Protein: Uronate isomerase
Organism: Microbacterium aurantiacum
Amino acid sequence: MNATAGQGWSLHPDRALPADGGIREVARTIFDATRTLPIVSMHGHVDAGLLADDAPYADPASLLVTPDHYLVRMLVSQANAPGPVRDAGVRSAADLGAGDGGSTERDPRTIWRRFCAGWPALRATPTRYWLEHVLVEVFEAPVRPSPDTADALYDHIADRLAQPDYRPRALFERFGIELLATTDAAASSLADHRRLAADGWGTRVVPTFRPDPLFEIARPGWAGELAALSDAAGVDAHDYDGFLDALRARRRSFIAAGARATDHGHLLADTTPLAAEDVRRLFDAARRGSARPEDARAFTAHMLFQMAEMSSEDGLVMQLHPGVLRDYDGARAERLGHDLGYDIPVATEFTRSLRPLLEAFGHHPRFRLIVFTVDEDVYSRELAPLAGVYPALRLGAPWWFLDTPDAMRRFREAVVDTAGFYNTSGFVDDTRAFCSIPARHDLSRRIDAGFLGRLVAEHRLDLDEAVATAVDLAQTLPRQSYPAPDGAAA
Amino acid sequence: MNATAGQGWSLHPDRALPADGGIREVARTIFDATRTLPIVSMHGHVDAGLLADDAPYADPASLLVTPDHYLVRMLVSQANAPGPVRDAGVRSAADLGAGDGGSTERDPRTIWRRFCAGWPALRATPTRYWLEHVLVEVFEAPVRPSPDTADALYDHIADRLAQPDYRPRALFERFGIELLATTDAAASSLADHRRLAADGWGTRVVPTFRPDPLFEIARPGWAGELAALSDAAGVDAHDYDGFLDALRARRRSFIAAGARATDHGHLLADTTPLAAEDVRRLFDAARRGSARPEDARAFTAHMLFQMAEMSSEDGLVMQLHPGVLRDYDGARAERLGHDLGYDIPVATEFTRSLRPLLEAFGHHPRFRLIVFTVDEDVYSRELAPLAGVYPALRLGAPWWFLDTPDAMRRFREAVVDTAGFYNTSGFVDDTRAFCSIPARHDLSRRIDAGFLGRLVAEHRLDLDEAVATAVDLAQTLPRQSYPAPDGAAA
Amino acid sequence: MNATAGQGWSLHPDRALPADGGIREVARTIFDATRTLPIVSMHGHVDAGLLADDAPYADPASLLVTPDHYLVRMLVSQANAPGPVRDAGVRSAADLGAGDGGSTERDPRTIWRRFCAGWPALRATPTRYWLEHVLVEVFEAPVRPSPDTADALYDHIADRLAQPDYRPRALFERFGIELLATTDAAASSLADHRRLAADGWGTRVVPTFRPDPLFEIARPGWAGELAALSDAAGVDAHDYDGFLDALRARRRSFIAAGARATDHGHLLADTTPLAAEDVRRLFDAARRGSARPEDARAFTAHMLFQMAEMSSEDGLVMQLHPGVLRDYDGARAERLGHDLGYDIPVATEFTRSLRPLLEAFGHHPRFRLIVFTVDEDVYSRELAPLAGVYPALRLGAPWWFLDTPDAMRRFREAVVDTAGFYNTSGFVDDTRAFCSIPARHDLSRRIDAGFLGRLVAEHRLDLDEAVATAVDLAQTLPRQSYPAPDGAAA
């Protein structure tokens, strides 16, 4: 960025392109071919209700600060250290409006001031990079955040939020989004998607089938999940065969609502199926509340194999992203809720884990598996070699903690050699921060342009090929990786 | 490359050198010092019979497409996706002539057309980089592959293959190969090497002793391997002492045929020796067909220790490259044969695994161990610290999936700090694609020139030192790392 | 460097800055803001007696060669290979004065000549980089080491060592060291620190509390360690409660002597506490000599948790650096002594291991944990996500084998995205080579300037922010990460 007091604030047109002069010029040419392409956002967490309601956003803090738990976690991580964050009064997430309890800050302007004061803590993070884009490109912010500018910025954004052009659907149009996939529980009524369809938005916003809690039989909430699934599917899911039938029924409902994919996030990537009698025994033990941890892991693995089988039948793309220890901090998970910054990656094995699934379905002409990881070690060692041989497998984009300029570059450097470009799935933003979607796709296209630009500058690829590849990465591959199942509403 | 229609096709002289202007100029100077040095190819899979027969190659497809399973796997990985590969009619390896069965394509021109159509799928892969070199530098191809150029290219290459200058021995001379090591089963008759020796090529093409199947006592073929070993060695290998004697005898025969090294590729790097009574018990159990998987692993580890001991006696260099799960896809392995694209790496431990061997032989003045990995994680964590202290240990070049421009650069960046340059073994091409050998060595020298050029440009090394180092990496270290054993034929 | 015969030897002012012209210029500006800042050296192994005695150094070899086991190990690793090291007569560490026994070389000039002959083996290593700085900047060496210059260099340095300006305290002043932390056994008398305090140096050189051997109950020396602890603390440490009391007492003594931190280097990062009865049972078993390996690991983990609890009470910063298999080579450890080059890293888990400690103390306002690793894999996968959420946790600098130009760059690239700059602790030199301290801090500042310069050149950070960040990394963060405990002598 360039921020000169009194002259406004603008983003540099070459931001996030390689600094080297020779590469930058080529990268700029490549980026020009993709910068205005529509956004295909096939894996994210935007709330469908946001677009169904199309209500104005409330205020800058509840839009940009409190719900962004990656911003909140970074500010909280500085709460004990002398410095601007602590000086601004941040001791815990509650001081930024997150979590509940009597001490939670409720005044949006106070929260906004704390965020502005803590701006230096975000230096060089992707959170900062995306926020700059949101502030400048979406809200025309005139100055960068600081204690001195906090109030003016707040007022500036609040003013924009009151205008019709800043409502969610207007932004959706302005952002150039072609297709947005949300993430939805298996038992979801999909009511918001029906409302969207009624307004003619059914082919622009589609659900994704995410049944994770149903496959975790040792968790306290499992019985409730079964009941909800039974209700939603209109099939009694309390024995194993009914459970499979109910899942198939829900997948059909999702397909009818436009879904392209399923999504699975368990600790392990294991996909070993169980013998029929063994899975029935486990299911019944779980029903009696006596499933052991090893039973739970075996059941999850078995169900991932079942999901692959169902996908090979109904055409939903299967997405897998294992390797994160959820709710790492028990006390915080209880207080703040699930998945709010305390999910921490662990080393994750894919080669042996995916073997049963890939031997069975890896060459199936109707099956598509997209695998994500937050363990960079497996890129060159396991995932690229697998994606470079199995027609069914594509590598998902760098995800979560790896969705950053340097990590996206490392992803390309580690996988393209062995997997090529065309066994990757295209960028996914994986975000619930709707306003940040263009920033994230823009950044991804810049990094890919830089990577391709280097290949051209090193005479490893011709410029025409690099431009064609960039367009494929931004548009062809996400469209092609998530095709509409045959029976889809369209 | 530069490919302008009508103007022929040439490779850019600066290809694969760093794009940065300051570094590139230095790198070019460094590369100039190594570009025409002879090739010392100490670890590969060229068939000795190819050079013993010296017959003309049959056609472009059976030379460059069908046997290159890394080309085949990449094209097949695109078989289910809309795009040029599928459009060209590739559904499986059989469509490229690989595998057997009634449906296997036999027409070389059809196979060649499919390859040319699938060319875009290879963008940025090392396969593409090497093929460009082969096409342009070896066969003077006038245009790059595409559906439009396929037939002309085919005819062009077929015409060259009919000329005496394109027979294997003529190419060997043209490539400037000083020494080529093949890989040979322990029970090999070494007949092809004898034919080469009879023609005066015995000091240019030498065998390598690879006894892997003999050390896998739980595999179905083990009994047959023992019988073959007994026959070849003229020693009954059906009890453990005879087994060791037969191995020693075969090693002597290999040394007499010019061998410099042994080569060992098992799943684990474990080198723990067993007590004498334990190994005899395991051997006898295996003879009865009752060896368990853990017995098999223990026996493999024990035999690696024995190989180190024998190497310290007879002077054969020991090469170790663990960490690949072979024949990952059971159905494909049965249909296509072994090691044809479905070998996938796994995380591999070296520190604890090599300890018994290194404690016993790591300072032995006659012992040399060269270790390869496809798990990049161990470069800086395990292998560089080990190579930086044990006189017997050298790190092998980046191998297999890591034999690529970016991975070769990462190798130097990860190991030179701790291991220095002089504890690495020099480049090995590890290929069965004879015509690609110059391309691979040329690329390796370019990457090393780029790495050294950066050190010079960052004032971390003087130019004269960088040039001397580059020559050592290309020539001194491979020669020195694989010395002729004392008793070698010479 | 630039070394032109006859013109002296000087270090290039831009050394270790990025080669790219655009980045380098920015990096130079950033580096200029930190190059003369005082050195805050909070984690090292300089012998306090060196500064307490302030005696002249004996000779160049015993200063720069023999005690630098990373220099010695690299030269020894070349002992079996044809080349300059072997030609100079190096067969083992004894030939460089290291280890004991009848054959150990005692003539410093001979040792120095061997080092100078072996200089090429150090190309591109950090040892070489630091030595150049020491030779040129500290000792004004006129020529680089080589067989031809060895004697002149020896005489030149020996002449300097005889001058008062080259005594340890004079060098300390010249180096601009603000604060130096040593590493001291829990039972240390801290006599050298008392002598320093008596000379007014007590606030410039402070001890660090390192109780490792006390937490390894299965090691032969444990009983002796308990006795020494009891004596030093004046508390009977032979039952578990007394053991804790004695540790608390020693921590108080260290705090009184100016200590800022504790330091813990065990194989694992596990911090699982034991129930009271279990730990008493283990302690008593250990007293009887019957602790099993798994008991020892459980006790170590328990004690790390106790150390965190004590730190939350007394304010000593807790430093953790697991993951190294010590004394890898049994025979060498016995002959050469401990920790002399044969310590080799292993893969190390942090996410699950630190969980008990972080759940209990990760948000404690008085607790500070600094974690180091030699396993780069965990940077982006485990440590950055943890440091980016827990206020108590900071990432230590790249350490030991990772304290190199390229590895320091990789550290920033891997962690800053998720942890930011301000959850890192600043550089630590971790060295016993006193004269190399300025070289190490200088190099670290150059690498950080290069990293920040790239962010500026890629328009991801403004120059003013980059300069401020560089100063914080060099000065603010090390000061702030190691605050004086409340009860500290000051």
About this structure: Chain C touches chain B through 54 residues (CB under 8 Å). Residues 1-6 of chain C have pLDDT under 50 and may be disordered. The two ends of chain C are 42 Å apart (CA to CA).
